[in-house]
Specification:
Helix content of chain A: 25-40%
Strand content of chain A: 35-45%
Strand order of the largest sheet of chain A: 1-2-6-7-8-5
Number of helices of chain A: 4
Number of strands of chain A: 8
Shape of chain A: globular
Oligomer: homotetramer
Radius of gyration of chain A: 15 Å
Structural class of chain A: alpha+beta
């Protein structure tokens, strides 16, 4: 549910460098959003309607020894979905955003290895963006969770 | 998705104190599960089929200034639902558990105040437990999110 | 996903009787919406943010002998949620509507008896209404499913 | 939520023809399940972990003139997901089944044309099968909804 507008506004006061591309700025600031920083996210790539974000494994993120907590996976699904909604968004339509709803299915556990989420925005309405997200283990490359979000940008 | 079994086993090696009540032990260990410690959860209460867990506000958990990241709320829904499934569970039926699926609807934002989740396990099948969760802001006492999980204990 | 506007418009051509209360008209027309007629729905009651709708048992609605098909239950959750969103809606804000998303958890089966859904609209945003729905068996009065919808009226 | 076992058992009493392939029998009986007959489903194809089922447009299935009711789409997602779970299932592991949970996102409306759902079972656990489903309009070939189910066969 990151709503980057305040960061954008703040940034505008300090520098003019991002003003020509607010979407790129959202992506560049993404790892600085406090909870996203706490998770240690790494943006792998993003393109129109697409985003790919990873989290290296740290024991602090575990629910059981060596296995990510379900909340970490849900968070990664939420924030990767959100970035795929931002990517390809026309900033003239507004820059205030939040997650409307989130669904996650947990398929298997990733043990002691990083995870990466890949999200695609499959439909853009006037305000709502529908995103489908899959989460893979980085080393063993197994599908460990899937989900979707409805994201709203106004 | 916490699967407390390993913690239980470990504990048994050290002390015998919890062996007579494994469910109570799950609850007492809950704030020590690494990611739950990172979130700073506080168990308010639990009883058969019920659990109530809060997270005091910290800027590290924000998605925008002063507002919880959606991932924090999803995590709280997951882990509070799980504790309500544990509460009232018959440990002789097994102690291995994981979340099957999670749904969250985001209703409004909590600004700079703590949140508390209240979960009820509304149905216990042979392996699956269905839990309904509501999240409130602590000071203004508004409903800020609701969700449900399907939890599996075997 | 019923979008009653066309029915409303049509009705206006014929009579003026409903013009003063479009929401009441939506409710009165509800059993005439073709698929809702096929299901044989019966509106039990509705009030601000609330609706209660039943379906008497018919073998045609079964998935296995004597048990409702999951699709019937999902449909009842959708359409009861929608009516609770209409109830209490300010018609001046618009009368075009559709379901954004639907979640259902199946808890137990109703055998050869009617079902009734009770829905509450728990949050109204500018366009989106969030509804929580429970489905009970009519005779044995057991909770057989629960769900929620996000509904949009513009 | 179709639970075809009773049909299977009944069939066994009458003929021996299906006994060597119970999964094929589930598929062949699928259009006869009462509510699925009422919807007028047509099985397009199925293969291991995959199923494709269509519903030709009929005004009886409408929520607004010429547009499918959301309940029809939810039903199609449920029953197509279920068939993809059956396809590839080892019948020796059991033949009793029901839907655990269902999620649907409504992306756009199909106007006066048939719809077809395509489902893939992406994960088989010991009892639970996770299926992802997309629904397309047949003529205009647009993605009109997506969803997932958790299905249980024991």
């Amino acid at each position: 549910m990151p709503r980057p507008k305040p960061f954008i506004r703040e940034q505008r006061l300090n520098t003019g460098v991002y003003m020509s591309n607010p979407i790129k700025m959202v992506a560049e600031m993404y790892p600085w959003v406090p909870f996203q920083k706490l998770l240690g996210i790494k943006i792998e790539s993003y393109d129109d309607d697409y985003a790919e974000i990873s989290i290296p494994f740290r024991e602090e993120l575990a629910g059981t020894p060596n296995v990510y907590h379900g909340g970490v996976i849900a968070s990664l699904i939420d924030l990767t979905g959100a970035l795929s909604a931002w990517s390809g968004h026309d900033d003239k339509k507004g820059m205030r955003a939040s997650t409307v709803s989130l669904n996650v299915q947990y398929l298997s556990g990733a043990k002691g290895e990083g995870i990466v989420a890949k999200s695609r925005a499959v439909k853009r309405g006037k305000e709502l963006v529908f995103c489908s997200i899959e989460v893979f283990s980085v080393t063993s490359n197994r599908l460990i969770a899937k989900g979707d979000i409805v994201y709203r940008i106004v």
